[in-house]
């Protein structure tokens, strides 16, 4: 897959992070209540820069920015990590952009991109208490394949 990863939707562009995105990313990622179900949160600007910038690959895991085509503002992010012909996915949006269809639009376009590039299945891990994300994955036609007391694993076969 291309190292110059860029996916376009009607309203968004999904691309690699830029230095200018870090402050906006920090703003919503360091909101501990909004990000209570996320792992990547509460870090310093330098730590975020180390994680988000540079030539990360799908095989090592890469966080991608979801930006508005209208104004260039950061809407959210998508995490991808390829394992053979499967890919793990994670996603989040700013609280101010929630429930406006951006996550669905962006994740759906990312699923199509992965399918076009030879990925056979996509997996997502969700805390049992993250009801919104569970509902979201069901809407995207993911199936729950594992559940324990803490989390669920969902898979979408392409």
Automatic annotation (TrEMBL):
One Pfam family of this chain: Acetyltransf_3
Listed PROSITE patterns: GNAT
Domain of life from the UniProt record: Bacteria
Domain N-acetyltransferase: 12-158
Protein name: N-acetyltransferase domain-containing protein
Species name: Enterococcus wangshanyuanii
């Amino acid at each position: 897959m291309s190292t110059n990863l860029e996916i376009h939707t009607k309203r968004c562009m999904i691309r690699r992070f830029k230095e200018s995105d870090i402050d906006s990313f920090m703003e919503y990622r360091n909101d501990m209540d909004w990000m209570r179900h996320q792992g990547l949160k509460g870090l310093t600007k330098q730590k975020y820069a180390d994680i988000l910038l540079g030539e990360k690959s799908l095989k090592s895991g890469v966080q991608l920015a979801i930006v508005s085509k209208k104004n260039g503002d950061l809407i959210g992010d998508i995490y991808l990590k390829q394992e053979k012909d499967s890919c793990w996915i994670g996603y989040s949006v700013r609280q101010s952009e929630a429930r406006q269809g951006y996550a669905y639009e962006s994740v759906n376009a990312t699923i199509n991109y992965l399918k076009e590039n030879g990925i056979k299945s996509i997996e997502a891990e969700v805390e049992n208490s993250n009801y919104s994300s569970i509902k979201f994955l069901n809407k995207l036609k993911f199936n729950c394949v594992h559940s324990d007391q803490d989390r669920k694993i969902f898979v979408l076969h392409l």
